[in-house]
Here is the input.
Amino acid sequence: MKRYVWLLGMVLASSVGAGEIYVAPNGNDAAKGTLEAPMATLAGAQKRWRAETEPVDVILRGGEYGCTQTLEITEADAALRSVRAYRGEKPVLYGSQPVRGTWETWKGGIRRVELSADQREAFSSPGQLFMGGTRLLRARYPNFDSQNPVKGGFLYVFRSMYGEEGIGGDVGCIHNAGDSLTYAIDAPEAGTYAVWIYYGTHMASYNNATMDGRTVLVVNGGPEVPLTNLKDTGAWSPQAWAHCCDVTLKKGRNVVRWINKKGGGMNIGGWKFLRSNQKILVPADAFTASVGKQLTVHYDGVKNAFHAAAGELKPAWAGGDVVLKIFQSGSCRAFMEVVSIQSIDEKSGRVYLSGPECVAKLATGDRYFLENHLDFLDAPGEWYLDRKTGILYLYPLQNSVENVRFGVCGTLISVKRKTPLLLEGLTFTETAFTYNDGCVGYSMGSRGVVEIAGEGVTVRDCRFENIGRYAVVMSGGGRNVVRYCTIYNSGQGGVLLIQSNDNDVSDNVIENIGLEYKHIGGVVLERESSGNNVTHNFIQNSSRYGISLKNAGGNNEISFNDVRNTSLETYDTGAIEVTQGDRNFQSGSRIRNNRVLDTNGYSCIGPKEIAMSWGIYLDSFAGGYLVENNYVNRTTRGGFMFQGGKGNVLRNNVFLNASMSQGHFSNYVQNSEDLVFEHNVVAFSNPEAAWFSQGKNLPEVLTCDHNIYWRYGGGLETLPGFVQWKRLGFDAHSLVADPMFVDIREDDARLKPDSPCLKAGFQPIDLSNVGPRKRE
Here is the structure.
């Protein structure tokens, strides 16, 4: 912490003896800015301090301040040293403005008001509406389930679509002579149709063989028609369309049978029968009969289409401002996409999507819901804005429309200078966000309520509540501080660092994040952010990460954080997670003395729940990390994950009660080396849980010994996974013994005096200093 003391001291000391400009909600921008005659707005005060040559402190009296545009602090604001609350008072900066106009009763408890032209323009898209300090929900279908907010209130993809036009599943393993697929095809008119097949074959790997003439089509029991023009596609999965033959169809129902006559492998994604302006699309998996002992259907999905259950969605919901929010499974189930609906075929259930967030394949069982249509407005707390007419509809929570406000500004303060600045004691609330905030796919976001592109900025003892973007984003620069802040109900994440070094993010409370975008974190370090201190934070209720390091550079300290209830809505994740693309980089960073509880990793296939998460996840090629003295309890796939990195050390940690397996040593693409797992305690109680998951060649890359293992209820020594583990030569000097914690059900990790851990060299972990410290 010594490296940050100078910064806090300089910022705090700089206000001593400085000039003061007072601002109050009942002030006047023409006033002198004294305590007795305060100014009214920060924009007005900015004109005053820019005329000063001596240091200036801006002091805000308690009350509400409407912020309709960003306060830009640049080198032109060199005199400004701080913006802070008057002692004992609470200034609140709103990124929203009140709804004006006369509300009228519409129907069924729903009220409505026509917005003025200036309010329509100011109402940011997609929109945030608040009432009495509560964030309201855009009208959605199905309704939000307050009793089961994570798992309830969803529709599910009835069937994924496959192929270039999203027409069906991939039929494979039909390589045996005699395998066949039979289809019922309805032709709108009789005549000759050109047959196109969406296929994949890699027969070139078998003595340069091809599939030309090896398969046939038989129409209505007639002669066999050979399929030709089936060039090698370089892969077995469907890759290309080919005009393979012509056939004659009668008007009405036709029985078309594909037969593998001579053997040979190909996968089929779909068929097209074309005649003048007629096009018949036939999903490959829509066969009515088949022959094939090994036949499989793989629903890999496409990025912009799926089948809903017939009649579940209305064509009228396509187009316009309706959005579909879907938790995709094609990219590790890691994020939710926000997409537009291009068209809906109510009879077939085909749904076609569009927009920049169509980046992952959609699969059968993916959960989704729709937002922003008047048809969906049927529950208290929902709202809908018809942007064509400017009419705002609201189903109030308690039959009241008092204090209704809408978000107009997403970033309230932007700092672009290299001289110290203090922001202290301020509350930021009811801010906006957009779908262009950098959250597409795996992207973590890029915008904040407070944005810092400079050095020496301290954000201290501030509160961020009901915000649309990250609370604080540091992009470039460094030596900034975020301390003693509270971040609550964020549409995105908490604090984001992008290529920013030597910052201190400590002693903050970050709760309920990821309300709008899901691939976010409480504290995120991205793109060569090095030398940062992330310590003593309390992070709880996150859609994905508690703390995440994405190609974050080196020498970062992640310690004494209390991280709870993470990965609530996403899969393949960790409470504290590291991703690194460089296969050899050694970070030299430390993850230590953290408490990690209840890491979920939730996803589903339809109503069937699945889960994948680890407490501490060294993903991809994360290397050179020291992970020690952490307490991790209640995960799904294990307390830890070693993916493919090098030089990682896990030492003196406690990993408890993973429900499926206890940890994972992957040796991904056999890249790992010099891994160490020593003096750790691993204990679990679920009799169905497995031992460590493991990859290839572990004895060559992992040193694992002097650990303490236990399964409550006994039987660990006969657990097949543990027996196999020992056969690999690991843990020759480790103990199988009850570690004898005081009470792990209450997360009391203290050891009883006669614990065997003490004799085995394990050092007790003191959790009393975890989480935020008292204010200095």
In short: Helices lie at 2-14, 42-49, 117-122, 698-701, 720-727, 756-759. The longest helix spans residues 2-14.
